[in-house]
Write a structure and sequence with these properties.
Order of helices and strands: HEEEHHEEHHHEE
Shape: globular
Strand order of the largest sheet: 1-2-6-7-5-4-3
Number of domains: 1
Strand content: 15-25%
Largest sheet: 7 strands, antiparallel
Amino acid sequence: MNDGLPLENERQMQEEIGQVQIFGDFNEEVPGSEEYLVIGFSPGSMPLKQRWRNNGLSADFLAEYLATFFPGNEEDTIKADKTIEVKSAVSYVANELLENAMKFNDETSQQPISIKLEMHNDRLIFFVKNSLKPKTIAKFQSYIQELLTGDRDELYIRQLEHNVQDENSGSGLGLLSIMNDYLATVGWKFEASSKNPEIMTVTTMVQLDL
């Protein structure tokens, strides 16, 4: 029974299993890929602003890595256009996910931040994992619920207006763009760290159709 909830909303409701909380389309049953790339970041290795500048470099590196799996030539314009389109999407999605991870990461935990890109026959899957500042967890989960159940066009306009009024608010548009502009499915998994149960981590999973 769905108690009158639309099926798509029911699918997006929060699921709690012990200390694990699942939001959105986080699918742990997706088989792993033999083609993947993982980049890890030490949270205390450099100042936050410098790490944000390096996010773009890391995102572009993932995009260039992926492009090697789309061989073609200048005469194959369809394949060339597809390669450019996918590279642009990977660069944008990876950069936005890394910025969010850096923004919400709990640097006192000394937990590394990681991004993994898997290539499947029909889609690309991103996994980004970071620890969370305790005081940001409730706000972040509330925003996720809003993304999953609210009108995204209205949320987008509201966030634009909010950013104009408060320059220090942070963009907040990255996840909306990933879901709206790139039609990606997104899910989150909150759980206690395997190394320290007192530390909460979140893994963001983004699936992008090819």
